[in-house]
Design goal:
single chain, elongated, 13 strands, six-stranded mixed β-sheet, alpha/beta
Length: 321
């Protein structure tokens, strides 16, 4: 089932997707939209339905009901979308007896990269994932981290418009993971990238939008700033010493000021759409605190994605069939 042409501006759209495995309902009316050019995070606990969602996005599974639109053209079709959508499964199995160059060349040809361009494109990818010195090594001789980097590289062969990455930095050392995150962030505006990850810091660092799913249902979706409250809350943590709560409340009224004693943190809620700006709130709060002897430890806009995730209400029990 395809979607109306009015949705062709989306890189990916799922509407009311349901998928059952026997008596288990993996997806229960899941709907979400990935804008073109965005870096989109897909988050959820184990068993939430993320892997099934990825498989349906790629066309590896067909939903029992609902609509899928990939790049404005209905469900993924290898005949018409070859090279436009690429993916890195979490447990991708690569041809271990091939050299890295031969493997990437083979995958690039499958994606439709012209024969005359494939050599330079493979060289570009090997440099990207820092494996140029292992170009002629057989895949079976590579470490887990190196194989993961080959897998990431193949997902960016050519010029795909939509890239799906399942736990992309799993198994990479901190330096390699940082470099891959930096590269993914540079793709914003050039192609849509969907990242499934348990690493909430990773999602917060490189994504501009995200969706949280649980039991096959959408729990919440939006921009990272919306979900973390970057335009709605300021957190100021104090060191030892005075915490002038009442003075701060008086200065910032009618904004809501809450004091968390255990963390020694003021949480100041405000509405950016009501004429308040974060910088204005921070400046006013710091003046009061510093004039009254408070020792400022940290100032943050919003909260971490991990805290926002943990504070979301528990979702319902798994749906019964």
């Amino acid at each position: 089932m395809s979607l109306p042409a009015s949705h062709s501006g989306s890189a990916l759209r799922l509407d009311g997707i349901r998928k059952n495995y026997g008596s288990l309902r993996a997806l229960d009316g899941l709907s979400l939209e990935v804008p073109r050019g965005s870096i989109f995070g897909l988050v959820g606990p184990n068993g939430a339905g993320k892997t099934t969602t990825f498989a349906i996005m790629c066309g590896l599974l067909q939903p029992d009901s609902g609509a899928v639109s990939v790049l404005g053209g209905g469900p993924f079709s290898p005949r018409t979308m070859r090279g436009r959508l690429t993916a890195l499964p979490q447990d991708a199995a690569l041809g271990r007896d091939l050299t890295v160059t031969d493997l990437l060349t083979y995958l690039g040809r499958l994606q439709g990269i012209p024969r005359g361009q494939i050599r330079s494109e493979v060289a570009r990818i090997l440099k990207l994932v820092d494996l140029a010195d292992r170009a002629q090594s057989r895949a079976k001789t590579l470490s887990h981290g190196m194989l993961r980097r080959v897998g990431i590289g193949q997902a960016f062969l050519g010029n795909p418009e939509l890239v799906l990455l399942d736990e992309p930095t799993n198994g990479l050392d901190p330096r390699q993971a940082h470099e891959i995150r930096q590269f993914i962030a540079t793709q914003r505006g050039h192609r849509a990238v969907v990242i499934s990850s348990h690493n909430l810091h990773e999602i917060e660092t490189i994504c501009d939008r995200m969706a949280l799913i649980d039991h096959g249902r959408l729990v919440r979706a939006g921009t990272i700033s919306e979900i973390t409250g970057q335009n709605e809350e300021v957190c100021i943590t104090l060191g030892a010493g005075p915490a002038p709560l009442e003075l701060l409340k008086a200065a910032l009224a009618p904004d809501i000021v809450a004091w968390e004693e255990a963390a020694r943190t003021f949480r100041i809620s405000y509405r950016s759409n009501a004429g308040h700006e974060a910088e204005e709130v921070i400046g006013a709060a710091l003046r009061v605190l510093l004039e009254n002897g408070a020792r400022i430890s940290t100032v943050e806009r919003g909260q971490s994605l991990e805290r926002a995730f943990l504070e979301l209400p528990n979702t319902a029990s798994p749906p019964a069939l």
